[in-house]
Structures are given as structure tokens and as C-alpha cells.
Here is the input.
Amino acid sequence: MIGPAFDSDGTYYTKADLLNLMGDKNSIKTNSEKLSELKVSVYGDTAVATYKDTYDLLMKGEHRAHTIIATDTFVKMDGEWKQVASHGSEAK
Here is the structure.
């Protein structure tokens, strides 16, 4: 499920924007990315993952290097896990 979203720099993307970014291999170049401190809690058909994401990338030619703390929420629907929400804030 892809829907409207904000990135960690506060830029708002519509669903169409996100699909265009993902479909254009020249829009995003990841130099490095590391996930750490991953914790997953499962509550029946719902799971919540928290983690740190440290990345260095070029997005549409703009350099971005941040560490964010993130929370992703998943729900099991028809036997498959689907991401239903995601949030990230820049770590201090």
C-alpha cells in the first residue's frame, strides 16, 4: 500500500510522486544505509517495528544524510503482512 507521505526533510509526496520516484532509477541513489536497534512487537494480527535508520543518499540530485528513528506498523490481512503506517523523526 502506497499513499501520501512526508520524508524526513518534511517534503510531502503524493502517491503519484512516490510511484514516479520509485520508477525512475536516476531519482534516488543510495550511497549507504544501515538499520540498527530493530525491535518488533507482535500483538495478534498487528506488529510494530521500531528502529534507527542511518542513510546517505542523493534524491533528485540533493544530498541527504540523516539518522532517523522510525516506527512501522503492519497488519496481517488474508495471511499476508501489510504495512499500514510509518513514521520517522530525525534523531538528535
In short: The longest strand covers residues 28-43. DSSP finds one helix and six strands in the chain.
